[in-house]
Amino acid sequence: APSVFFDVTIDGEPAGRITIELFGDVEAGASRFAQLAAGQQGVDYRLSKFNGVLPTYIRNAGLNKLSYSATEASPIDDLDSIDELEAELDKQQRRHDVAGLVSLIVREKDARPIKERLVARDGKLITVLEQAGEAPNGTQFAITTAPSPDLDATNLIIGRVVEGNELLGRIAALPVNKPRNDNPYFVAGKAMGDKRAVTAERAFYRPFLKVVVSKSGLLGAADS
């Protein structure tokens, strides 16, 4: 099975390498992940951040855009579409039942709040509906540090860590921005779709030190 690697820095200092063996029976997911790790035409995981250190997994923020310029089509297969990933998730037999599993975030756990906003159009005020936050684009991923059954419905398992467990443990132990789910103002703001609450929630579990992919690629390639 093909393998990919991520060289990681913590607070700007080289911290080591995570090597991931991809599963051959999740073709769309493994292929997408491998292409993003290999970095075709500048669309890759390099400089992406591990922006979430949660109790049972760490999360990579993925890519904001799947093309490297506004006018170019994305060089990766299926472009922005995650239909094939959703189809594989629907058939998924594996479970997030051990540490070291790597999975693409395909669906959202909770529906994002919808908020009404008044905008002026052709001299009239009209109401538009906005959904807070952004939908997954099939590039964000998680690596389990313990069984994580809550990911089974949303994440497509595409591989497992074969090297770098010590580094994963170091990332998992970093101090993080604690969630504020017990704050009534936050809970009310989130229910209303208040952007400040959605922005605040995005920062939950963010490590205080920057954890960044400095280099990624396919193993066996010349640059490994």
From TrEMBL:
GO terms for cellular component: chloroplast. Residues 5-218 form the PPIase cyclophilin-type domain. It comes from Tetrabaena socialis. Keywords: Isomerase. This is Peptidyl-prolyl cis-trans isomerase H. Signal peptide: none annotated. GO terms for molecular function: peptidyl-prolyl cis-trans isomerase activity. The keyword Isomerase applies.
